[in-house]
Amino acid sequence: MQNKTLLMALGSILILFGSCKKYYFDSGIHDSKYQGSTMEYLKSKSSVFDSTIVIIKLAGLEELLDKENVTFFAPPSGSVFKSIKRLNNSLRSVGKDTVATLEQIKPEVWRNTLSQYIFSGSFLLKDYPQRDTLVYTAYPGQNYASYGGRIMNVGTLFNDAGGVQYAGYRQLFLAYIPDLSNPQTALQNNPVATSDIKTNNGVLHVLTKSKHNLGFNTDTFIDQVMSSGILPLNK
What domains lie within the chain, and their CATH numbers? Predict the structure, then answer.
C-alpha cells in the first residue's frame, strides 16, 4: 500500500512539472511567458536591470523594446558597472574627471552600444544553430545583423552528458566578432544565464553578468565615450 501511495505521489509531481514550461534564471525557476512587453519585464526586475533601464532610456530605445518585435540579449546592471569602472580607471590615468552619472555619456554612444544586443524578430534557443568552439568549422553557429547593423554570432553550445557527446544541456551564446574581415577568429563568447523569456513583443535572453562587460570590447566602448566627449555633471 505504501509503495502504491509513493508511486501516486511521484506521478503527481511529474505531472506538475510536465504541465508548465520553465526556464532557469541563475539558480531560480520561473514561468517562460511574461504577460507584458520586453521593457515592462526589465522594469519588473529592476533590482537586476536598474542601470540597464537607465541607459535604454538615454539611448532612446525604450519604445523599441516596448512595442517592436525584437530579440534582446539583455546585459544586467553588473555588466554596465564593470564597463563604467574600467572607463573611470582610464579617465583617471590621463588626469581627466571621472563619470559620476550615466547621463554624462552621450545618447549616441549608448544607442550604438545597446543596438548590438537587439535583433529583429523573435528567436528562441531552439532557433539558433549549434556552436562548438573546439570544432568551429563544423558547428560555427550563425552570423546575424543586429539592430544597429553590427554582425554578431549566435549559437547554442551542446554540452556532453554521461560520456555522450552533445547529449547534455544546451546553452546560448552571443559572440562579438572583433575583426569582421576574419569573422571566425578570436570571437568573444558571452554566455546566456537565462534564455527564452517570451514577452508580448518578442524574446529576452539575459547575459551572465560575471562573464560580460557592456559593449563587449570595453576598450572600444571607452574610446567611443572619450571621442564623443563627456557631458558635464548636472548638480
Answer: 21-228 (2.30.180.10)
